């Protein structure tokens, strides 16, 4: 949900000044408040992060779970006041560790996973999808807890995401950025 503003463009400098207990993202200078994740959301996040983390152990690529800020930069931003896109994806994988600093990731992650909730469906499927595609995130997953589905979008040579591959909780996903990593969705979704 966008926060009210007076035609002002917010930046990463504003983000740093907000209280730490507030979950806020900034997209094209507009701040968006994030809801606190549900226990189911957190369980899915932990299960996905664990499978990826075990695979990445001893490798230069790293996985980060929220809260973890991602400053999607174009490369010409010199100051915090120049950065107008700050995200807190549920799960972020970064292969180039030169993009990691004390504040999170400054640059384009290789894989982003968002776990949708009823309040974030449009935001994750449209707003974030368009921003991640435009920035050049190689792989974007949208996880739907209610339907136990995962949509995987891969960046094509034309700079656009292709049609999604859709997986159910009974399937395994071969992660495109790591050809020998398979994520078992049966171990991701909580059984009720």
From TrEMBL:
Alphabetical keyword list: Endonuclease, Hydrolase, Nuclease
Q: Which GO terms describe its molecular function?
A: endonuclease activity
The keyword Hydrolase belongs to this UniProt entry's keyword annotation: yes
Domain of life, per lineage: Bacteria
Q: Which Pfam families match?
A: Uma2
Instruction: Spell out the InterPro entries in the cross-references.
Output: Nuclease_put_TT1808, Restrct_endonuc-II-like, Uma2
Q: Which residues form the Putative restriction endonuclease domain?
A: 13-185
Q: Which Gene3D superfamilies match?
A: tt1808, chain A
Query: Could you identify this protein by its name?
Result: Endonuclease, Uma2 family (Restriction endonuclease fold)
